[in-house]
Amino acid sequence: MDTREHNQERTGKLQGKLALVTGASRGLGRWIAFELAKHGAAVAVNYANNHQDAEQTVGLIAEAGGTAMAFRADITKEAEVAGLVQEVTTAFGRSVAILVNNATGPQPMLSIEESDWAAYMDQLEFFVKAPLLLTKAVLPGMKAQGKGSIINIGSEVVQLGNARFSSYVTAKSAMVGMTRSWANELGPAGIRVNLIAPGWIPVERHEGVDTSDYARTLPLQRVGEPQDIASATAFLASDEARFITGQCLSVNGGNTFGI
């Protein structure tokens, strides 16, 4: 993606806030991190394996005048999550105010006959366990600040119920219930919890894939871009959304209508 499209006028609506974005070395996570930094947040770019890609994300942010650092951690492992949050808060000298649970793993399409419990657990590790570990780790800092924003990246598959994809659909569905329960529990502490449900947003791994058939099914007649998800994330992270919590925002060109 051409970074020139993203070098818009910087605003300060997230100024002074520290954001932690998981799975931010590439794909949607990269552009979410970039957008948060564009609006003034300092960004911790989490990655699991590819240090070079993570540093490229940091470089793009720095080139645009933002502040970011890369931090490696497997966010499905409790000890590594605790170490990640401690390392991030020490490096930036402040507590995390914005948490974006974006990281994902392989997403195999399997029939019911091909599926086993391990296939379901693989998805639940990323979309239920990891957000739980991360949220628990950042909560003390958010509660001390008296506010915070947690944004879970879900999927339109919850409504579409794609065939041969039940392990992924199930885990993403669990994210919806988790988001709403957390919003009720954490609201009195000033912490907002929301979910963004993207449609199919082509990123690096989809290079060369024909998107025309999918686009024709959408009311807006085009596929989404990472910027569409990034902009929605920055809005929900900001005080502009200070009275919004427990919501599931579909960002998919009208493919579905709310969850």
TrEMBL record:
This is 3-oxoacyl-ACP reductase. Belongs to the short-chain dehydrogenases/reductases (SDR) family. One of its GO terms (molecular function) is oxidoreductase activity. The lineage of its organism: Bacteria, Bacillati, Bacillota, Bacilli, Bacillales. It holds the Pfam family adh_short_C2. PANTHER family: OXIDOREDUCTASE, SHORT-CHAIN DEHYDROGENASE/REDUCTASE FAMILY (AFU_ORTHOLOGUE AFUA_5G02870), SHORT-CHAIN DEHYDROGENASE_REDUCTASE FAMILY PROTEIN. InterPro entries: NAD(P)-bd_dom_sf (IPR036291), Sc_DH/Rdtase_CS (IPR020904), SDR_fam (IPR002347). Transmembrane segments: none annotated. It comes from Paenibacillus rigui. GO terms for biological process: bile acid metabolic process. It comes from the Bacteria.
